[in-house]
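Acyl carrier protein
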Amino acid sequence: MPGEPARKLTREQIEAELKALIIDALKLDETLPEEIDSDAPLASAGVGLDSIDVLELAMAVHRRFGVTTEGDAATNQRIYTSVRSLAEFLEHEQARGVTLTPSEG
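Predicted structure tokens:
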């Protein structure tokens, strides 16, 4: 309702949103969200994303949540290590006042 404070997303909700975003943004149509391990590395043997995929994911996260990572390469590498590390970053941003809302549908 208008005028009501936005409900904060839980870590589990953020992780679910990220898994759906990975599947959608990278067109992994044969993958189900529950098949993506939150602790698996996003790159190489884990989820299997290459550097271009991670860049596309970063752009999708920006479009979806309105947040960007502006730290150095090492910071970005740490944030984009896994779904869980990315969810932790978004949860921290939410605690700083960024409004994260669940997607429609």
